[in-house]
Amino acid sequence: MNSFLPPTGSFPTTRLRRTRQHAWLRRAVAETTLSPADLVWPIFVHDHEASEPVPSLPGVDRLPIEGVVKAADEARRLGIPAIALFPVVTLGHKSDDAEHALDPNNLICRTVRAVKQTVGDSVGIICDVALDPYTSHGHDGLIRDGRVLNDPTVALLARQAVVLAQAGCDIVAPSDMMDGRVAAIRQSLDESGWHDICILSYAAKYASALYGPFRAALGSAAALGMADKKTYQMDPANASEALREVSLDLAEGADMVMVKPAMTSLDVIYRVKHTFGVPTFAYQVSGEYAMIRAASDNGWIDGEKATMESLLAIKRAGADAILTYFAPEVARWMSKNG
Ligand code: PBG
User: Fold this and answer.
1) Is the shortest distance between the CB of 285 and ligand 1 below 6 Å?
2) Least CB-packed of 47, 55, 88, 248 within 10 Å?
3) What are the helix (H) ranges across 236-322?
4) Average pLDDT over residues 86-97
5) Over residues 209-214, mean pLDDT
6) Cβ(245) to ligand 1 under 6 A?
7) Does residue 129 line the site of ligand 1, with CB under 6 A?
């Protein structure tokens, strides 16, 4: 990009403010636009009758299956192409070996089936492939002697992906950061006849403080305790390493890649998009939502404007789609503002 620059002339002949004078002209020269089609709506599902607010994510609820079905229908009406589902797994279903992840009647599978039955193919369903909702220790992988094991975890993830595909999930999204998991998942999906299920790999996922509200919503924060995920998620100091992660995942068969968090990784989003030219997703994670939301709820910033600006910046950096808890609200603002 920008291997040449057009001559810009100089003042007073050139006045860049000319094209900023009118709202219609600013719209006409806007280089980046946002539409509901750019958004993916992450949704928490739990095994209760009623919705329950997530305290650290004001405006976001844990929904019962019926609520997710309604939300999926709302996504369709709002023009949001896909939802990403995250199950709140009860303590009784968490174990050291995460075996409940493979149960075809677990909460996430029942939810996927219910949603598919209602909205059919009009809204895509994305499911995380990761063990953390199911492990009693809160890690994304199996543990032995305090170490998160790579290869045995990958073997389990490959089976979890097939279980999710059987339930009706359209896109599996490995978010665990184990090495080699994309290849293993692609192979097990193909061997089971699921050639057309897409893989959206969380390719460049940083060990971030901004996942806090998500882990609280899922109950994995309590399970994880003081532990962190730095032996598998990336060091925020590194960007070239993110390109290696992406290139490996693509070689292993990822259809789309994700960078996460978004606002602290705009340089990475940019480099990924411009290096590989593949569908690039960015996740505006729970902590990013919480920061904007809290400042807005306190009257310190204009929430609508700050949200739109944050999403525009992520898009401008090169994201093709953005996972954001603001998705339904933003899509509603867009239809209001024409
Ligand atoms: C699970 C997972 C996490 C997120 C998405 N999938 C948390 C984590 O890795 O600890 C974070 C999303 C968010 O903060 O909104 N592997």
Assistant:
1) yes
2) 55
3) 240-252, 266-276, 286-297, 303-317
4) 97
5) 97
6) no
7) no
The correct answer on CATH 3.20.20.70 for the domain covering 34-337 is: yes
Backbone angles phi, psi at 159, to 5 degrees: -75, -40
The secondary structure of 192-260 as a DSSP string is: TT-TT-EEEEEEEEB--GGGHHHHHHHTHHHHHTT---TTTSBPTT-SHHHHHHHHHHHHHT-SEEEEE
Residue nearest to atom 7 of ligand 1 (CA): 211
Instruction: Tell me how far the alpha carbon of residue 18 lies from the centroid of ligand 1, in angstroms.
Output: 44
Q: For residue 198, report the phi and psi dihedrals to the nearest 5 degrees.
A: -80, 150
CA–centroid distance, residue 220 to ligand 1 (Å): 10
- CA 270/CA 2 separation, integer angstroms: 13
Structural domain spans, the chain: 34-337
pTM: 0.96
pLDDT, tens digit, for every residue of 245-277? 999 999 999 999 999 999 999 999 999 999 999
